[in-house]
Amino acid sequence: MPVWIEAGLWGLLGGAALVIGAAVAWFVRVPAAVVASVMAFGSGVLISAVAFDLMQEAAETGGLTATAIGFLGGASVYLAANALLARHGARHRKRSGDQQPAESDQGGSGAAIAVGALLDGIPESVVLGLGLIGGGSVSVSVLAAVFISNIPEGLSSAAGMKRSGRSARYVFGVWATIAVLSGAAALVGYVALGSAPPELIAVITAVAAGAILTMIADTMIPEAFEKTRTWTGLITTVGFLVAFAIDLA
Questions:
Q1: 177-188 pLDDT, tens digit each
Q2: 119 three-state secondary structure
Q3: What b-and-e string marks burial along 44-67, b requiring 16 or more CB atoms within 10 Å of the CB?
Q4: With 0-12 CB in 10 A as exposed, 13-18 as middle and 19+ as buried, what is 134?
Q5: How far is CA 202 from CA 34, 74, 76, 102, in A?
Q6: pLDDT tens-digit map of 59-85
Q7: SS3 of residue 147 by DSSP
């Protein structure tokens, strides 16, 4: 199998977890506390991947200065894009309660939520494709982090979409499209950067890491804390530990 197709399939696998989470939220009544707990766990998993895979690899390859610039750049770009989308109704796209606006409440919010969900998933997918460059392989710990964290993301966001009155066609259309685009992002990441110098790949990896960490702090942790409160830190720590153990294994 051509490596570029493999990159796309890994990205598609990570994105498919969003569809799984959305299906659970749509067909099963999941208590809000459970949704929040799984979101906290997924946050810990992603933080571990950012720290022990993405940032460590970027620093070892491109050096601390380039990594720091990429990291802060990724965080800044994500912050700016997220702020813009928030003005159009996508601020609470990962919330499982009634915070998400209906289309009748704020026109264009449906499209903004969809674009916001795509914004959250692209950095993760690009990183999966980058892992295959130079004859490498996809990091099992990063793949596990993306898959594990995407399930609660899809679950929580789809629950919020359902509560705001959005249709099944909209909900599953959004997540299926994002899953496909996640695969495309991983494929493009591999093809576009296949011959790039290691230093550039390190910077882009750091950019993705900065965007992911900002996304966790801005959208995942708030949803988790709303219901788990003082338990949020412990559950997040458990998620971090599980991902760390996978990385060591």
A1: 999 999 999 999
A2: helix
A3: bbbbbbbbbbbbebbbebbeeebb
A4: exposed
A5: 36, 13, 18, 41
A6: 999 999 999 999 999 999 999 998 898
A7: helix
